[in-house]
Amino acid sequence: MPNQPQIIDLYAGVGGLSLGATKANFQVAGAVEFEKRIIDSHAKNFPKTHHIHADVSKLTGEDLFRLSHLKSSSLAGLIGGPPCQGFSTIGKRNLLDERNNLFLDFFRLVTETMPGFFLAENVPGILNTQYDEIRKSAFKVVENNYDILEPVKIKASDYGAATTRTRVFFIGVRKDIKGSESLRNAIIEAKLDSANFVSTAIEGLPIKISDDWNDYLSSWQEINVVKNNQYIQTLNRLIENTGDDQAIAAFINQSKVSGSFGTNHSTEVALRYANLEQGQQDPISKSIKLKPNGYCPTLRAGTGSNKGSFQAVRPIHPTEARVITPREAARLQGFPDWFQFHETKWHSFRQIGNSVCPIAAEKVLSVIKNTLNM
Questions:
Q1: Mind listing the pLDDT tens digit for each residue in 35-57?
Q2: Residue 361 and residue 324 share a domain
Q3: Residue 296 among the catalytic residues
Q4: Which residue out of 84, 109, 183, 359 is catalytically annotated?
Q5: Does pTM top 0.90 for this prediction?
Q6: Residues 30, 149: one domain?
């Protein structure tokens, strides 16, 4: 819609932030992503967005405007989740990790595009004292032109998601725009009193998963349409100009969705999983059996091919002796059933594990839009 405020999503991934922004009634004019297979998935879900397959560090603000087909004065917001591996508490926390520089590039591009606001998402580990200088250097670039909020730590479950995934949001508002003084409190006050647990999130998805569902075509399976589940209804509402036409048609007309990939567990592993109590961790795989009336822990992405292509530990289904499917992971993370991921199980999990929780993103960006009167 032409009257929607325009944003650009850097380090867009599969589109968790983009989806949250779209649901908050922003228009994602441009999305930048370095990995080709990921930006191809983003393009499936956001066909009206201009997709920029590029290294953010090599782009200028002028490039962003040109490639997103925007005028230099029309950018409401610059958002993004710079790679977090260098800051993660489960990683090496390498101060010299080259990917840390991508955090600085985000703020460089803020100064080169001068949006009404910026939002950068990252892992809580970035607040550790060893990264003080990186944060100070980044904020120094924008502090003359922006009111920078104290970092906001967001636990997705507090805002309606079925996962405890916790991330830090760095937000700044251009000094000529009113509302920054009340924005942080408004975001904190947007927390929900009610909770959505695992059983609510995965209701209606296939429970008995065949080991033979190991390719993309066989991963398309029929779901039970649950009409009295507000979480799923809210998740699955269709959005104008968003989504892959074929996936939406299958969802509406056949109640079919992709992502129900099977995982072939050995008899020994399946027996161990079956004997676990809900909430208990398997001592060998380190997978946790989900509690129906609990939250899913943070879903991990695993490593890329440059780091050995190791799969992340996946939670175990609360009642079945198997790990969860990508579609179940997507529900827990806050993605609609019609949302498309890569056509392989491994890359689907990577894309979901690397994504910003769309539910949390929508809540935060809705507050920003309303408070700043955009």
A1: 999 999 999 999 999 999 999 99
A2: no
A3: no
A4: 84
A5: yes
A6: yes
